[in-house]
Amino acid sequence: MGAGFYITTPIYYVNDVPHIGHAYCTVVADVVARYQRLAGKDVFFLTGTDEHGQKVEKAANARGLAPLEHCDLMVRPFKDLWRRYQISNDDFIRTTEERHERVVAKIYQRLYEQGDIFKSLYEGWYCIHEETFWPENRLVDGNCPDCGRPVEWLEEESYYFRTSAYVDKLLKHIELHPDFIRPGSRRNEVVSFIKSGVEDISVSRTSIKWGIKVPFDTEHVIYVWFDALINYLSAVGYLYDEEKFTRFWPPVHFLGKDIIKFHAVIWPCMLMALEIPLPKAIMATGFWTLGEQKISKSRGQVIDPIELSDEFGVDAVRYFFTREVPLGQDGEFSRSALIGRINHDLANDLGNLLNRTLPMIERYFDALIPERGEELALTADLISESAAIISRYHELMENFELRPALQEIWKLVAKANKFIDEAAPWALFKAQKDAQLREVIYDLAETIRIIAQLITPFMPATGKKIYEQLGLVADPSDIRFDSGLVWGYLRAGTKTNRAAPLFPRIEEKEKR
Length: 512
Ligand code: MSP
Description:
- By secondary structure, the chain is of the alpha/beta class.
- The chain is built from 19 helices and 15 strands.
- α2 crosses α3, α11 (305-312) crosses α12 (314-324) and α13 packs antiparallel against α17.
- 5'-O-[(L-methionyl)-sulphamoyl]adenosine binds at residues 10-13, 21-22, 24-25, 50, 228-229, 231, 255-256, 258-259, 287-288, 294-296.
């Protein structure tokens, strides 16, 4: 097993520009990648684009462009969005790249030679939108059971992948590794799907041209999902960079719940056929909905992630994504809920903590972090509470429990706000209890710094801004937890820089 930490997002179809659902999936994976880096792991965080298949070909045709030209244009908005959202991916794979196509062809060839890919006649229904084949009995009123669109009848010679040969072994793996498919509700869904019987799947097409050719039969193009899943191997050096591959494999996959079967059934069967260890975890995220409908371009509901971040700021949106719903569950998107989070959690709780503390440092200590003084029961309690929260935070973050981890951080925010009231620095100042005042102010400043360090995976720009206000020049994204979460990192004599509030309140109707 590799010593590194490998995490992936789905690779997105380039038939249209990215929307909020894509941004969500990528942000949550980014939070985990950033956390693992700060925890000292050697991280490889991958995202990319899925550029073959009928859906992309159709979109290119509609614009009068050659498919590759269309893809070259459409990849830009994805890359721009990731830059905007401070996504820290280490690589970006496009399925039209040679490094990918070569690996797909080699894998196809090997599976054919070992008899796991074989030729047969395909007759059946196909949904272009979902790029999925459906047996007759799964159709709903003759339409695709997932998206409700009409399906088309296909009759062609096709190569099949022998999924059925591996499903029993897969079922055992799922039973032995309860954390393989998460959350548990998805695992149950996959298990009952497998138990209902998995057939061999068609993995080539002759009716379309836009794809990777079957190496030994160039009339056929490789099925887009078979091609796409292999990105997780081709980007990490499989068959061409042994060192990289063994360093990082196996991965943790983050993906939406709509594509769980591809990732939790077909993909593991492909890996077993190739004798490659299965992923560490397959984490299925939920949907953002509007009026209980999945938000999607084709349904005409558009929330543009760029406009959203223009209006509210990237960190506020990143916070909302991770704080509003438990990972894996659906969430109804609402502007008022977003504003509510900004006003209460960010402007009020976190913002006030800074806005109360920094002026006291200015007033009592000329804006210089004081030496520690005389420990009090109250300060000892703050320090031990912070240590307890840090250890729960690690436990939760290791398990991708992002929302509970944020809730822990906000317990520390609340604790620190309460500490100010109870320690009443203004009274210590008045009574000239200098040693106590120094301890109270130092501990408060240090708690704020720890909070900034803890929120950095979620809100990297905010973590940095808080560090700046405390007078620290290093970016907390560059400070590993083994030093950044140690009490006492903040040095006496550091000059603070109070700045404008991090999150001004938004005066608009909000939901609570
Ligand atoms: N290309 C395939 C993935 C191949 S991975 C080997 C694909 N692409 S996609 O662009 O259609 O969708 C990518 C992801 O975006 C899916 O996992 C999907 O769940 C997610 N989202 C799309 N709309 C969404 C919401 N409204 N809410 C949250 N995520 C959703 O599928």
